[in-house]
Amino acid sequence: MPITISKSILLAPKVPSIAVVGLMLAQFVIFNIVNNPEPTCTLKVERPHHFTSIKERQGIDAIKLNITSECTAPQEYTVITAQIQMLENNREITVSNFISRKAAAISKSSGKAVFKNLFTKCEFGDESSYRGSAKGYVRIKGGKEIRVEGNSGKYEAENCVIGAQ
Amino acid sequence: MSYFEECLRLGEWLSEADRRALYRYLLESNKENYKAQANLLLENSSLNRRIANGEVIYTLQSNQVTYKARKIGSVEFSSEMRKMQLMGIQLIDTQRLRKFFAQSDVDVIQNFPLPGENQESEGGICVDTYPYYTLAYYANGGNPIKGIIKKLRTNDKDILTKLRTL
């Protein structure tokens, strides 16, 4: 006796179509997250150091702070406020509170911005230990703002003393 | 070489105090020049100026003035560097534009200095976030009362005297 299979059983999908659409959507979302991750930014604060070139050119002793912000996506600019802290009798004191600076990306498609003019006069001779810190935000191309913060790590000694502000 | 001419070559070697003093010096020494240029900008809605090794283009649109800058000889202008809202009253706007010009001159001097002994480091344009003519500058974006106190305490007399006399 021949086996007859109903046509409607063969054509009926085993997985409901709503689940198929859902799976496709989930795949699309995961694919986009993996391939276009949210941009991230870091603030690189180098240790404050004796600014030798200004000494050579202008005869001024100063402690300089180099800061760069780097993002995984092109940025428009970064805004920061930076500080230099000094150790005095094992206490942290802020000796330089820089005015807020805004640095544009080094080129229009770059994720990097470099801060300049961050230095403060000091008196050469005695040794003091310094640390740099900064915080602010990066404006990513397209308008998103990402908050950034960083410091130079442990205190490092320099042969120049900044007077307290 | 005068101290002002030296400042045109210092670029990123200009300190906070140098920049503030430079702003005040430019404002007073260029008073008539800025006034004439402000009138030109108000009439034509566009103005080109040069200072140190930089070129600035000002645009006036819907009572808002903006500026872009570039190094002389470069192809591309920066993106918009600053903006200022005007009031539509010529006398007041001329005063405000004078401050805007002095501010942009200091911004350009620190980023596009005249060639000198100081080597420029890699990087894009870097300026003080808040303009010198606002209390936000002195308050670092914080409380304006704090700004007033800080402004009263700020003394750039020595550099200003150097700019006026040397």
What does this structure look like?
With 165 residues, chain A is α+β, with helices and mostly antiparallel strands. Chain A has one domain (41-161): Immunoglobulin-like (Sandwich), CATH 2.60.40. Helix content of chain A is 19%, strand content 47%. Chain A is built from three helices and twelve strands; from the N terminus they run H-H-E-E-H-E-E-E-E-E-E-E-E-E-E. Chain A has helices at residues 7-11, 17-35, 52-58; strands at 41-45, 49-50, 62-64, 67-71, 75-88, 91-97, 101-104, 112-115, 119-121, 123-140, 145-151, 156-161. A four-stranded antiparallel beta sheet of chain B has the order 1-2-3-4, with helices on one face. Chain B is globular and about 40 Å long. Chain A binds chain B through residues 53-54, 57-58, 76, 79, 81, 97-108, 110, 113-117, 119-121, and chain B through 12-16, 19, 76, 78-79, 110, 117-119, 121-130, 137, 140-141. Strand 7 (101-104) of chain A pairs antiparallel with strand 5 (126-128) of chain B, so a sheet runs across the interface.
User: How large is the radius of gyration of chain A?
Assistant: 28 Å
Q: What fraction, in percent, of the residue positions of chain B are helical?
A: 40-55%
SSE string of chain B, helices as H and strands as E: HHHEEEEHEHHH
Question: Judging from the principal axes of the Cα atoms, what is the shape of chain A?
Answer: elongated
Number of strands of chain B: 5
Q: How many beta strands in the DSSP annotation of chain A? A: 12
Largest sheet of chain A at a glance? Answer: 6 strands, antiparallel
Q: Which term fits the overall shape of chain B?
A: globular
Instruction: Just give the CATH class of chain A.
Output: Mainly Beta
Computed structural class of chain B: alpha+beta
Main interface: chain pair and counts: A-B, 28 and 26 residues
Distance between the termini of chain A: 102 Å
> Which strand order do you get reading across the main beta sheet of chain B?
1-2-3-4
Name the helicity range of chain A.
10-25%
Largest sheet of chain B: 4 strands, antiparallel
- What does the average pLDDT of chain B come to? 93
CATH architecture call of chain A = Sandwich
What is the count of DSSP helices of chain B, taking H or I runs of 4+ residues? 7
Structural category of chain A: alpha+beta
Query: How large a portion of the residues of chain A is in β-strands, by DSSP E?
Result: over 45%
